[in-house]
Amino acid sequence: MKIFEAREILGFAIQIEEQGRMFYDHAATIAKGDPLEKIFLFLSGEEEKHKKYFEDLKTKMDQHKLFEDYPEDYQSYMNAYLENIIFPSENRQDAIKNIDNIKSAINFAIRIELDSILYYHEIKRVVPSNQLDIIDRIIEEERTHFVKLVELKKGNHG
Q1: What is the pTM of this model?
Q2: HEC string for the chain
Q3: Residue-number span of the structural domain to which 9 is assigned
Q4: Contacts for 120 with CB less than 8 Å, ≥ 6 apart
Q5: Taking the alpha carbons of 57, 60, 64, 66 in that order, is the dihedral positive or negative?
Q6: Per-residue pLDDT for the chain (158 aa), expressed as one digit of tens each?
Q7: CB–CB of 51/14 below 8 Å?
Q8: Which positions ≥6 away from 55 have C-beta within 8 Å?
Q9: Cα separation values, 60 from 26, 65, 69, 137, Å
Q10: What backbone phi and psi angles, to 5 degrees, belong to 100?
């Protein structure tokens, strides 16, 4: 059995949001002068806001071990998920640098929003129940971002 440390789980969430912010800043430069620039800048701000939520939560839970033990296979699952989905070995930073048009930026953004939603659903299993409302709010905001991005992909910029 492995006892998950809140710091570790929330550290990954902070990294996810920081990478999302960097991506949206990059996407805004690609969309410079296009109405999508403002949307990407808004999404960047949202990622920064989420990062602060997780940093605050991490501070509150500093050095705190979560209450439950989880089977080693769950730890293996979470590690594999992080390494292959959230932080793939091909390095997301390199992938971001290779995005050079609005269409590929939107497609990439859709993937990162979905990856984030899935991760946040998983961490709900290991976050104390009195903090679940924060995670649920972030999931709902990420869903809203996902829907907006799908609309943008379809050409509905409104």
Answers
A1: 0.78
A2: CEEEEHHHHHHHHHHHHHHHHHHHHHHHHHCCCCCHHHHHHHHHHHHHHHHHHHHHHHHHCCCCEEEEEECHHHHHHHHHHHHHHHCCCCCHHHHHHCCCCHHHHHHHHHHHHHHHHHHHHHHCCCCCHHHHHHHHHHHHHHHHHHHHHHHHHHCCCC
A3: 2-154
A4: 13, 135, 138, 139, 142
A5: negative
A6: 444 566 677 788 888 888 889 999 999 999 999 999 999 999 999 999 999 988 888 887 655 554 455 566 766 776 677 666 665 655 666 777 788 899 999 998 998 899 889 888 988 877 777 778 888 988 999 999 999 999 999 985 54
A7: yes
A8: 10, 14
A9: 32, 12, 20, 18
A10: -130, 10
Q: Which amino acid is at 29?
A: T
Residue 141: give its domain's CATH number.
1.20.1260.10
d(Cα 86, Cα 79) in Å, to the nearest integer? Answer: 10
Structural domain total, the chain: 1
